[in-house]
Write a structure and sequence with these properties.
The chain is of the alpha/beta class and 131 residues long. The chain has one domain: 3-Layer(aba) Sandwich (Rossmann fold). It is 40% helix and 21% strand. The chain has 4 helices and 7 strands, in the order βαβαβββαββα. The chain has helices spanning 19-31, 43-52, 70-79, 111-130; strands at 11-15, 35-40, 57-60, 63-64, 67-68, 83-87, 103-106. The strands form 2 sheets. The chain has a 5-stranded parallel β-sheet, with helices on both faces. A two-stranded antiparallel sheet has the order 4-5. α1 crosses α4 (111-130) and α2 (43-52) packs parallel to α3. The radius of gyration is 14 Å and the shape is globular. Mean pLDDT is 87; it is low at 1-7.
């Protein structure tokens, strides 16, 4: 699949528990040329998705409708899929040490800023994969 510029379309998996925030993020990502997998409100459907498909990046809320996203983050890390946490900082006090170097963006933030960060991570990851 490609975008209008002939470049491959990048897919971002979206795991968020706030429907209003999700709509805003989805619109911003799609306007920036990304496909969105999901949105998912819980970790169970995300596990099913990543067992069958591979996004280019995942945006994870820490608290979801059916648990915390750290197990998903571990699975993504094992599969070599970059991710970032987009959540409220007060939810991040118990972040496991293996994810302390992950990108964290505090809610709420500008959708433009979030898409710039996502674009930067996806571009850097694509360059690293080519090496």
């Amino acid at each position: 699949m490609s975008n209008g510029a002939g470049l491959p379309t990048r897919c971002v998996l979206l795991l968020q528990n706030d429907p209003d925030e999700t709509r805003i993020i989805m619109a911003a990502l799609q306007q920036s040329g990304f496909d969105v997998a999901g949105p998912f409100g819980g970790v169970t459907p995300v596990h099913e998705y990543i067992a069958a498909d591979q996004p280019d990046l995942a945006i994870l809320d820490t608290a979801t409708t059916d648990g915390v996203a750290f197990q998903v983050a571990g699975e993504l890390k094992d599969r070599g899929i970059p991710f970032l946490f987009y959540s409220r900082w007060d939810e991040l006090d118990g972040v496991p040490s293996e994810f302390r170097d992950a990108s964290f963006i505090e809610k709420p933030t500008s959708p433009t800023l979030l898409t710039k960060v996502v674009t930067g991570i996806v571009e850097r990851w694509a360059i690293q994969k080519k090496r």
